[in-house]
Amino acid sequence: MTYIVLIVLLLLSACFSGLNLGMMSLTPQDLKRKMEMGNKRARKIYEVRKKGNLLLVTLLLGNVAVNAFIAIFMGSIASGLIAGIVATLLITIFGEIFPQAIFSRFALQVGSRVVWLVKIFIFILYPIAAPFAYLLNKILGEELPAVYSRHELSKIIAEHSESDSSDIERDESKIVRGALTFGDKIVRTAMTPRSLVISLDVNDVLNEKTLRFLGKHGYPRVPVLDKETQEVKGLIYTYDLLNLKNLNKKAIDVCHKKLIYVHESAELDRVLKNLIKNRQHLFVVINEFKEFSGIITVEDIVEDILGKKIADEFDNPYKKVVKRKRAAKKYARKASHLAKA
Fold this sequence. Notes:
Layout: H1 2-25, H2 28-36, H3 40-49, H4 52-77, H5 80-105, H6 107-113, H7 115-140, H8 150-162, H9 170-181, H10 187-190, E1 192-193, E2 200-201, H11 208-217, E3 221-226, E4 231-237, H12 251-254, E5 261-263, H13 268-277, E6 282-286, E7 292-297, H14 298-306, H15 317-340
Parallel strand pairs: 2-3, 5-6
Antiparallel strand pairs: 1-7, 3-4, 6-7
Helix pairs in contact: 1-4, 1-5, 2-3, 3-6, 4-5, 4-7, 5-6, 8-9
């Protein structure tokens, strides 16, 4: 009979200790998300977890009371020092270490199975636990939701993609992380530098040679540049050249004069919003001296989010990446030198 009582008390101690760690580690926000995805286990636990302070006080009161009973019970069957040592070892090993190790790993699975027992504990200890829970609610307020920064979310997603138990693939992780962090980047990091921009001169005539040149590169929009002043005067839309009336005219006479300029230090997320708002696919980039320094397109920003270049049938992907990287590094060094000067 003595051993049965001791085992029951240790089981109760293990339940209170494990449930305290396991259930309190499941935040109401986590459980709500799981519920919205149809998780029945989360729904069961949420019924008791939504009143966090009442649950916390109930489990702590039960744990302290049971551990006190174990100490008293051991004192009745053994001498003081031995009883204290044995009670401490039993509570630590079987009432704390093992149950907390189990519940910390399988909180949702185990918690949903014994939630009925938690409801019984709450019912029994409610007269004592409720006043303490009420005071905690008044003093500390409701539990604060866990809010993560963009960088923290990016790190969490990266960790999940590296885990064998996660269904997030590395390519998906890369895209999501790119979308979360591209707001911290500026135009200079994603733009096509001036040295790589395919353009026409204002005096170029739209003849067969020009059409072959445009067809070779395959860009739907080509800047028209005054090479003397290094100013962009407009954009040639290659689909306009399907109209034969535009042939044998100068590029400056056919190009669209409506241009939108953006500073190379502008944030990428704002630029993308403006591209969408203005229904444009290309902005002209200028530096601090208001000089033409490159172009930024929707494709450039998407490539930055994806973390890789998008090659079409006109591109040599390897050459494009190498040239882009070299030009970007060269321009970054030049911009840094000018800033220091």
